[in-house]
Amino acid sequence: MERIGKYEVRRKLGEGATSTVYLGFDPFAQREVAIKRLHPEMLRVTDHTTLYHHMLLNEASLAGKLQHPHIVQIHDAVIDERDAYVVMEYVPGGTLDAFTSPDTLLPFERLIEIIFKCTRALDYAHLQGVTHRDIKPANILLTAPDGQDIKISDFGAAIFTASETTQLSGLGSPAYMSPEQVREQPLDHRTDIYSLGVVMYQLLTGRLPFEGSSKATLMYKIAHETPPPPSSIRPEIPPELDAIVCKAMRCNISGRYAAWREFSHDLAEVYRNRRTVADSTEPPDSEKFERLRAFRFFREFSDIEIWEIVRFAEWRLIPPGTVVMKEGEPGNYFCFVVQGELRIAKKSHLLNVLSAGDCFGEMALFSPGRGARTASVETTTETRILTIRAPALLRASSLCQMHFYKGFLEVLASRLSLANSRIASI
Known about the structure:
Elements: E1 3-4, E2 7-15, E3 19-26, E4 31-38, H1 47-60, E5 74-79, E6 84-89, H2 108-127, E7 140-142, E8 150-152, H3 179-182, H4 189-205, H5 215-224, H6 239-248, H7 260-274, H8 285-294, H9 303-312, E9 314-318, E10 323-325, E11 333-339, E12 342-346, E13 349-354, E14 359-360, E15 376-379, E16 383-389, H10 390-395, H11 398-424
Antiparallel strand pairs: 1-2, 2-3, 3-4, 4-6, 5-6, 7-8, 9-16, 10-15, 11-14, 11-16, 12-13, 12-15
């Protein structure tokens, strides 16, 4: 069996001008991996191979640095005069390249979800001091061909510190470059914002915003021209998506989104506006993320921890008059009100009314076994709740658990203070 280092080679996944990517197997970790290996001729020292080594070292340096659910994890690397390869997480669903032609375009809702997750991942990278600098459909991987979960890959062209902002010639893909990349000016996260705008434009229309008969012509257009809005190519594109793409792709950097969170927020708003009729279906991940991020309880949770909760929590839409928890019954889960209103009663006496952002049922976590409920909870309106079961919370990261328990202590302190105020007023 062919091996690369300690890794078994299963098959070739793809090949480019400088490297080949293989599907491999790590017998120690017992997992499939992707191995990107430089071609043997790239190991000979020239100006170009120095650049390729630099890019591979860039990727290798990310091992353990970017831990995010929507960024490909780097596991291992070997770079010397005899061999050069990087071992990374294997993502089996293909790339967004598959959806960039007019006959393979994605539904708007799925596209918005994908781009939203890209914005959150790239915001995380930016907060870690990393600017990708080569965002394009081929570097955005799908975890499943028909899904909307993504992983951003190929940080070989990345810049890593606030001081390292100048351009290196030869890095980046011309069609997706920002005007400041084309001009070889200092770069920051807004170059990635522009490039993701180009990706969004292509996914919406099936064509690139700028095309040229030569690289020089293409770069001139990027640096000096404004592309036609996506809806001029595909009239059914909603004006809100037109506006987002145009703002992300502003040639003048001061007119572009200043921060990733602004980009994310506008995408989430478009999705919410498109869902004009409430239904019992589970909300999309982008809406879940935005809802949780807006609640006071989750203010100290990192984006990574919010994504954890999005994955293990259960979301339900419940009609009015439904008893969600019953006094005296056992339970090993707690809930948050996402929208709507509920009443808490003990022996038919009203104790409290809950609304969006409030939690209930958390005391069961502090009881041995499946602690009995001390009060009943009933919906008074159509209500969406988020349910988290104790086993799921125990599988969460230690930081995520710590933030939950800290939040519960704050809730308990607030309730005791309110109870004392009520007693004092009697």
